[in-house]
Amino acid sequence: METRALGRKTAVVSAAAGVSRVLGFLRDVMLAALLGAGPAADAFVVAFRIPSLVRRILGEGALNAGVVPVLSRLGDEEGEEAQRRAAGEILATAALALLVLIAVGQVFAPWLVLALAGGFAEDPERLTLASLYTRLMLPMMGAAVLAGLAGAILNAAGRVLAAALAPLAVNLVLVAVLAVLAVSGLPPATMGTVLAAAVTLAGVAQLAILVPPLLRGPAAPRAARPRLSPALRRVAALGLPGMAVAAAAQIAIVVATQVASHEPSAVARLYYADRLFSLPLGFVAAAAGTVFLPELARLLRAGDTAAAAETQGRAMEWALLLAVPAALALAVLAEPIVSVLFERAAFGRQDTIVTAGCLAALAFGLPAAAVSRIQSQAFFAREDVRRPLAAAFAGVVATAAVAVLLEPRFGAVGVAWAVTVGSWAGAALLALAAAQRGLHGGWGRLVPRVARIVGAALVMAVAVWALADVAAPALDPAGPTLLRAAVLAGLCTAGVAVFGLAALLTGAVDRGDLQRLR
Description:
The structure is a single chain. Helices cover 83% and strands 0% of the residues. The protein is an all-alpha fold. The protein has 2 domains: 2-441, no CATH class; 452-518, no CATH class. Helix 11 (248-260) packs antiparallel against helix 12, helix 15 (349-363) crosses helix 17 (386-437) and helix 18 runs antiparallel to helix 19. The longest helix has 52 residues, at 386-437. The relative contact order is 0.12.
């Protein structure tokens, strides 16, 4: 029954993450059409990196690594009142710290921009726009962190639905604003200004949705003064490294952006490719932080190590069952996907070709990133942050080194390959650390299952490639948009169907897997 409940929670959280990602794609399709890949787009993308980085990390449950184990232990050992008091202190102290950080960021906005995109120093137009957009968006960072804390507190109490649904508000607000801008006739730079202000409005809307459920129920935080309480110190000791590990993939993209910022339009092209890459990864990360971590922590507190090992193995299987076919599908269909979604108005053919190359390169790192998200939670549940932090740092260093080597010759595509190399380096080190720590329970069952998943995914990739070749005339960029979108949707549907059938025939999926989602 518990395994079935875990499966249902995972499905709910993944579905909510999926809807949010779809809305995010709609937002980026509209953004590409309005701003293209020119100076305003580059400036907006760089400014959006900070709130987007924070929101995506926290939306994937990164703060749960610190908040869930600490609050759960307090509730078990000292009672509900101690848990509520600690939650209030965490929120109050975080709010004060965020006010200070946002104020400092307003003053040093140009230096923040240059830290993310040093190449803008050579382009005053992009630097000025990005500095303005950064100042308008920085308050979103505060709203996102407080929303992440509120969601983590709710998750510690076993209430995952509100935390899973609240991020939808951000993209709903931004899509609405983009729809208005599409008929406004404003120049790109002015549209970027309006949209930057809307980013902060969207963050406030997300936080507002979480306040009512947070204040209801037995786990509602107590009003408290900001102070460095023992609980807050423990949350910081676990949560900050946990955020760093969860941020590894995004920090790698930030590093890649810094390397690529000297090339015109490279920043925007990498951004669009990363957005597509992040769709399947977001499913895994959200479920890992919101469902898998609290469940694993509960089993370990109960002393049920056998059930914890089984849960960990099942989570790894589930992550690879999604990541492997998604990676091959994104690689095979990279150009049609980018063309159908983005190639219109200000986003031209060359933008499509380069962005598709970046997407194909990033796709091959998807399984590594997905496995790392699951494996790191096994360490966090045991309050061990040193090993996953070291692996994440090594992955970022590998990304930077390879990006510097490849960018001069291959441009943005070479930088994307550097991100993939870094993902696999981090995943390999994390797996080695897990084996040394004895956290490889269920791996014996995992190896043959992964072989079947890869086999089924290869069958799917060949079928989709053949179908895409036949459908190439209908996918021509000069053709009707609705027809192209319908053909792409058909290819994706066929790929899902072929993989599903191949997975059942090879044993990559069995009846037990399906029953756990009921």
